[in-house]
Design brief:
The protein is 43% helix and 20% strand. Strands 3, 4, 5, 6, 7, 10, 11 and 12 form an eight-stranded mixed sheet that branches. A two-stranded antiparallel sheet has the order 1-2. Strands 8-9 form a two-stranded parallel ribbon.
Length: 304
């Protein structure tokens, strides 16, 4: 079998032959195909030459199919049907894909890194662009369950209610202190250094009880009990409080890339960490599921 010769056959020739096999008349077949007879004859001759067999018997007054032609008619009809079905399936799948992938991000995510994440995602996967939405963990999970989000980076622990997920990063934390305070004069800080400093600001327990407990257990294990503590009033307001010398906090290292007047970031010696998982909604297109599941390092890098 000469495979190289067979590769010269294209689907158009099969379609031409199938019409001719129905008509058994070159003129009528050419009219159905909106061709003249010479190009149809050339394509059929090329098909027979590539196959190395005669498909048509032209020796008598009527055109007839040879035994090989009868076999070819059945086989080519199946091949053309499969080809058309494959094209339709790809087209339908492409039409079903969203224009963007709605990605939920934790409220503390450094959005200055998002453009690079989106570009790296598209370069690595050739998939649709990312559309970001920043929320606290519970709101991200709710968006996945309502299917208003396709995927989300969620700080653990969290009850993910059976949703598919993959760990992308374990993030260390930094101390965020007033730039004018004595704490800012040190290159690195321990939690003990924050005990008697400005008011320690952290999110309220009701916002995310599981994550609050996760941090509390780490603080207790490290003997950290701040003398003055208050609820963090949101990222912008918290940073403003710190810049005014009225507080300090801990944040994932991702936020250390953002610079604010009056605020200093210092390496934290004590190991305060949080794991972040990429969580996918139910019913997400399998192509996107595969692409997301294969890129944990890409999302981890974006978290710093």
């Amino acid at each position: 079998m000469n495979l190289a010769r067979h590769r010269s056959i294209d689907i158009r020739q099969l379609r031409y032959f199938l019409v001719l096999a129905e008509e058994l008349n070159f003129r009528r077949a050419a009219e159905r195909l909106h061709l003249t007879q010479p190009p149809l004859s050339r394509q059929i001759a090329a098909l027979e030459q590539a196959l190395g067999v005669a498909l048509l018997d032209r020796s008598g007054p009527l055109t007839r199919l040879t035994a090989a032609g009868e076999q070819a008619r059945a086989a080519f009809a199946q091949a053309v049907q499969a080809f058309d079905a494959a094209l339709a399936g790809v087209a339908a799948q492409a039409a079903a894909l969203p224009a963007t992938l709605r990605l939920g991000l934790p409220w503390w995510f450094d959005m200055s890194a998002f453009a690079q994440l989106d570009a790296a995602w598209r370069a690595a996967t050739a998939q649709v662009p990312l559309e970001p939405q920043l929320e606290a963990g519970p709101e991200l999970l709710a968006g996945l369950l309502r299917q208003t989000l396709d995927a989300a980076l969620i700080a653990m622990p969290h009850d993910l209610q059976g949703l598919r997920h993959v760990e992308v990063a374990r993030l260390q934390h930094v101390a965020v202190v007033p730039a004018a305070s004595p704490l800012a004069r040190k290159r690195a800080l321990r939690l003990a250094d924050l005990q008697d400093g400005p008011v320690f600001l952290r999110f309220a327990r009701r916002v995310n009880p599981a994550l609050w407990t996760h941090y509390q257990r780490q603080y207790e294990a490290l003997g950290f009990r701040p003398r003055r503590e208050a609820e963090a009033p949101g990222t912008t307001a918290t940073i403003a409080q710190i810049a005014a010398g009225r507080g300090c906090t801990l944040l994932p290292t991702a936020l250390a890339r953002q610079r604010y007047p009056g605020v200093a970031y210092r390496r934290l010696v004590d190991p305060v960490t949080v794991d972040v998982h990429l969580v996918l909604r139910e019913g997400l297109d399998p192509t996107l599921v595969k692409a997301l599941s294969e890129q944990p390092a890409l999302f981890g890098a974006a978290l710093g």
